[in-house]
């Protein structure tokens, strides 16, 4: 238990207030399915499977409900969040597409509040992990502890870490060491946790929304490329406008707590995801997405002059996957039943900005990564 | 896809047809314009129907190819509609997934169809096709330019004989006639040749233009050649003996002396040829006849009779292939008859046994004389034939035939008046193979021992001659010849210089 307490030292104060033994701040009670999630005893080669409720084949009604659900989520979030429409749209898009999101912004712009409100709105178990340099991997994933049963027999029992939730806020993720950051790799990509050769499947839907502060770089560890690539979007949370700040002040005078209510649940999210997968994408748009990703690579033959000059290395094929997957969701969110070039172009910056590395020439030319992506998009035919 | 889509597609096909027809007509006009220009500037005139075939053929081919290129498929139409009405790939998606099932796909299709239906009535937009009429106008411009361009007139080649006869030609012809008159040709052949030569001379005096005389000149050359060839009965022996001399004669006839030393009787060359031919024939015939005669020496009458019989048979065979009116035929026949007479006397026993060898020697001597005379006459006739024909050609600047004799002599020169000379000597000048002009080619000046330009040396020589032309040393004929001579030389350098 002592060890457990030690492990919990990095979690938020709010979580500690709720329980001394659980480092996970649980805003929304863990669902029955999540609680009953069997801890796999099988070796890692035979991972335990979480039974996911079979999703019905899409129907016109579902398509209509999709739009309604989006509207509800956005209206609920609007109760707690001022502005940030694009951020909210993209976060919802990534969640439905099944991707993780990296939020970057200065402190106090509402990143954490957004995620907390989202957790409430989606009625999903939510946990928040405050990343610090001394946070250990086991603090994230959990660890085996010795537990005495009623008969006095000592057993090794897996104590789940805060990652065992549906919506995980990895706050200031770049403050943890690479070792701890890497513990997120398997979780983010495969939605599984492996501890002591035991693999534990996380309940679906599962999302990681990480935040990082772009200005305080002392004592931070830049995220490794492998991990960055696992974030579907990197969203830049800009400082709010004066009128937005005024609205924020007014809003928080009543209560600091999030007032959003649950309007959808995990099953709905999964159903929406399945529905989005059926959105048709014409071959030309798919080719455009692939070409766009290829055009971020300066080393390929026929690379764009812009890329050769300003890009150090380009995006991985995951970027193309993310572009098409999210474009389908975006199309539905905009009331369309097909993906257009505009969807891909609109998603280019969130999908690509953390996946490409720009050169010093770009920096010296006073260009940021978004400028370069926009230029590549405009040059891609 | 619904009917509206296909109506839109029909509009696009109409546009494609418009483009293709315009391209086809423009290509046809352009092709005919370019061909017209090219041919007219090359002075080639084609019948009108050729141009029509070119225009129509090109128009059809270009129109068909361009229609294949411009003809829109469903996908292209869908993309055009999406782009034109900013439908965010709705139509393309509906088309690409028209055979797919599923709620979203069906809804997408319905949505796309609704959007297409709600589109304003689509009319082909011909405003954006301005480039095609422009191409048509440009091509039409080329065609009109081709039609209006006048056919280039080709100037007929300069006729070298489109000029008045020169005094040189008249004098040279007179000299040739004198040479023939004083020759040893047979009376009939001489008379016939003189008729032709006098026709040429009369023509030179009668007409103001040499080209009017050229038909007579050419006919005369042909007739004279045929006349001389008609007496070409000399045998192989004569051919072998005379080949070398013919070549010498031909060379002599072409030599520059023929121009320069005009007053020198060219016929001297023929005379010297005649004597040299006689020597040659004698030198070749006499030993052979003597060898044959000696086979009869110191024989008895019986053996002589047998030999004459044997030889007579062979001679009969030889005579059967010779022309009977030729001199050599006559010589051989006389020889055979004389020998046969002796043989008859031997057989009859009336032969003069005591003078048998002497009589046979006399027959052989007679045969030798007759044979030499026959061959001499034939070779002389042939020599005169070559001389007269070549002389006429040289006088009028006609190319000399590259006949057997010239080939044997290795003389390939066809241009009269230009001494090929030594092979190392520069031909000089610029120009094509037919005409060579003097230029800055360097030539050796024997006075200074230096190489100077041909033109410079020519001016120097003409300055010397000019003094004589202004003086009284030369008579009028000589002055005229000298002027004509330099006129020819200067005509060779004036264009380049």
What report would you give on this structure?
The complex is a heterodimer of chains A (381) and B (497). Chain A folds into 2 domains: 249 residues, P-loop containing nucleotide triphosphate hydrolases (Rossmann fold), CATH 3.40.50; 101 residues, Magnesium chelatase subunit I, C-Terminal domain (Helicase, Ruva Protein, domain 3, Orthogonal Bundle), CATH 1.10.8. In chain A, strand 3 and strand 4 form a beta hairpin. Helix content of chain A is 45%, strand content 15%. In chain A, the strands form 4 sheets. A 5-stranded parallel sheet of chain A has the order 2-5-8-1-9. Chain A starts with a helix and ends with a helix. With 381 residues, chain A is of the alpha/beta class. With 497 residues, chain B is mostly helical. In chain B, helix 7 packs antiparallel against helix 8. Chain B has a two-stranded antiparallel sheet. In chain B, strand 1 and strand 2 form a beta hairpin. In chain B, 69% of the residues lie in helices and 2% in strands. Chain B has 3 domains: 146 residues, no CATH class; 256 residues, no CATH class; 52 residues, no CATH class. About 9% of the residues of chain B have low confidence. Chains A and B meet through helix 4 and helix 12 of A and helix 4 and helix 5 of B.
